[in-house]
Amino acid sequence: MLDFERLLQDAQNGSLPALKYLGDIYLDGLEENGIKPDLQKAIDCYEKAVDGGMENALLDLGYIYCSGQYMEPDYTKGLAYYERAAALGSTIALGNLGMSFCNGYGVKKDEKKGFEYFLRAAEGGNPDAMQQVSEMYARGIGVKKDKKAAAHWQTKSEEKRRLDEEAVKEEQCDPLSEAFRKNLKFISEVTLDADFANKIFSPLDGMRQYTLGSCEFGSGTIVTADPLCYLQDPKSVTIKGKTIAPGSYPVQISVSESEMAGLRIVGARLRIKDSRAVKYELAESLAQKDGEWKRSFAGFPVECGMACFCDLQAAQSYWRFLEGWYAEHKNGNIYDDYFAALFADSYKKEPSYQREGGDFLMWSNPLDGTQIAMFASGLGDGFYSDYWGIDKDGDICELTMIFMDPELFNTI
Predict the structure, then answer these.
(1) Backbone angles phi, psi at 94, to 5 degrees
(2) What is the mean pLDDT of residues 282-294?
(3) Distance from C-alpha of 192 to C-alpha of 255, rounded to nearest angstrom
(4) pLDDT tens per residue, range 313-336
(5) Tell me, what DSSP letter sits at residue 175?
(6) CA quadruple 93, 94, 96, 101: dihedral positive or negative?
(7) Residue 278 — φ and ψ, nearest 5°?
(8) Quick check: 249 and 211 in contact, CB under 8 A?
(9) Which bin fits 34, alpha (ψ -120 to 50), beta or left (φ > 0)?
(10) 3-state SS track over 68-108
(11) DSSP conformation class of 21
């Protein structure tokens, strides 16, 4: 059963994927959770997702208003959404607009304009639009008859469909792609099994552990983020809802190696106590809104293939460092021109636990010595959850993030 309450909370906190998914649920209902279809709630969710910049929600709204499946068609609204999606490059929206003009759905029938939309969609790589363009050339609809052009677009449509089918078959036959798909489901789980987590951080079954060193937490307020992307933007940073006692705590990573995935960091944890976790709970986050820290979605996004642990004070110092660095390097790239060399040095010191070029670094800020523990996030970009580890006495003993299930990659 879907954790609907968490999805609802994430949507209320502005998570765009959550808003889109919630809209899908309200649109058709979800029997297993006892949720009945609610068109207005679906539209509200999609509109909020659109306002946040999610392009796919434009197509959902266009379909709702134009298809007649959910309401009496309102082509004025629906086509407006399709126009916005088309302006962003959606070939689906371009094709839908082409169909509208060819048939006069919500607009004055204009086959020439319809052809122009279909042609733009075809040139964008849409095989259905390629087929439509071929037929319009063959029949002289919206364009002068041209048998040669019709044959050309028919061939391109068939070739594009063949390539798409081969790509799907290849992906289905590729063990790594299949494992990757399953891992996406794994990292979206809201629970973490204690036995599984302890196995990840055990020197058994092909797993290896390495301690980056101790990281100082001056305030005890913890930040988990992508250090090369979201951590650089104060507006994007979230903090953990629970704090720890100020102090220095070891950061440990667990590494696996397999023929399928190569050498990867499977998980990382901040060891707060030496005790063993007997259960895990999702680490809720707080985001700054209107000058206050308010509840936000759990977990954190990764876009540069990296994750980190650090204190909020270290993050604030990091922002000052970046401001000064970019002032001196107007067109510089902080990774290529600064961090790459530090990660390369890390690899030279510990080549057994990371890939060439470096996968982890305990960075010390030149301004004040505050630290950020940086490490590669398993298979790269995605949205990852983190969890508080609770020991038998009910105390928090660790903050853990798991990037991949090594069993999917034939490691354990």
Answers:
(1) -60, -40
(2) 85
(3) 18
(4) 999 999 999 999 999 998 899 999
(5) H
(6) positive
(7) -105, -15
(8) no
(9) left
(10) CCCCCCCHHHHHHHHHHHHHCCCHHHHHHHHHHHHHCCCCC
(11) H
Three-state DSSP class for residue 286: strand
List Cα–Cα distances, 310 to 2, 136, 375, in angstroms.
Answer: 32, 60, 12
How far is 101 from 338, CA to CA, in rounded Å? 54
Structure token digits, residue 75: 């082509």
Instruction: Average the pLDDT over 227-237 and give the result.
Output: 90
CA distance 95 to 186: 36
pLDDT tens-digit map of 244-267:
999 999 999 999 988 778 899 999
240 closest CA partner among 194, 296, 304: 296
- Indicate the pairing of strand 285-289 with strand 238-240: antiparallel
Task: Answer yes or no: is pLDDT of 206 > 80.
Answer: no
The secondary element (H helix, E strand) that includes residue 232 is: none
Angle at Cα 299 formed by Cα 294 and Cα 305, nearest 5°? 130
pLDDT interval class at 412 (50, 70, 90): very low
Q: Which strand (E) or helix (H) includes residue 158?
A: helix 147-173
Confirm if 306 and 374 have CB atoms less than 8 A apart.
yes
pLDDT at position 2, please?
A: 64
What would the two tokens of residue 78 be? 């629906």
> What whole-number distance in Å separates Cα of residue 91 and Cα of residue 120?
8
* C-alpha dihedral (238, 243, 249, 251), degrees to nearest 10: -40
Whole-angstrom Cα distance, residue 412 to residue 199? 9
- The residue assigned the tokens 């004055």 is 108
Q: Among residues 33, 9, 12, 8, which one has the least CA distance to residue 22?
A: 8
In 3-state terms, what secondary structure has residue 361? strand
**Dihedral, 37, 43, 48, 52 alpha carbons, nearest 10:** 110
Please list, in sequence order, all residues whose beta carbon lies within 8 angstroms of the beta carbon of residue 231, skipping any fewer than 6 positions away: 223, 225, 237, 308, 310, 315, 318, 372
DSSP three-state, residue 124: coil
Q: Name the token pair of 83.
A: 């126009």
